[in-house]
Known about the structure:
By secondary structure, this protein is mostly helical. It has helices at about 10-20, 20-30, 40-60, 70-105, 110-115, 120-140, 145-150, 150-180, 190-210, 215-245, 250. It contains eleven helices and no strands. The longest helix is centred in the middle third of the chain and has 36 residues, at about 70-105.
Amino acid sequence: MPPPSEPSRVRKVLRGVFNPFHAAQRTFRPSRPGIVHDPQVRKLQLWRTVLGLAAWVGLLLAYQAALSAGGVKAVADDRFDQSWSSVLALVCTFPVVVGGFVAAARGRLRRLYLRRALRPLGAVVAIMATMGTSALAMAPELAGVREAVGLPGKIAIAVLTLWSIGFALYGIGLSLVHVFRTADIHEVLPPVLAGVLVWETAVMDVVTGAYPQVPAGVRAVFVLGAPVTVTALSWWELRRLRRHHGFTIRGALGR
């Protein structure tokens, strides 16, 4: 039996148009030819995300952050806001860390990484573009635009908004797991960028006084638990890349 033929580019584009989750996978998952895929690392990253969410919700519920259906909704909204804040922090951190990585590389590696950075940069632009779609559909300042386009325009905006919501929700998760597909630049970059991001988030929690209803000792353990865990995971991932695949930060920079 002959193997199934590869879908044409047009079919791939149409599938993304009709399926926002497929479009998110194409946009936020690394896909560079020759990239190293380590199943153990990916499983651990997924479990870290699931357990982190469970611990966060459990902590708030344990200290009566949600005592009603409305409170549970507030917990979910807060968790989404925190995830979105993490993505925004990653957007701001991305050019600094990636720019420093590319600048530190030598010779032809610098040009190679600049070319490879186009897809991760496209992922950043895509996640930010969803904010514009939401504003077009809901911002009071743009009510005049919605009235001007009439009923067909409103229907088109509604369809685009629904598509963007599915794309953004799935994209946020993929962006955090795959760190804006920076493995397309080099495999050692995601654990480095993830470590920087999680410590930034911890500092933001301290500065903004997050989780005020939780006792100080428990809050300190919770706020520091995530960066310590992610840092350990990042170190383990870098160690695994070095031992099993021969990748090091110095080698990636050509030094």
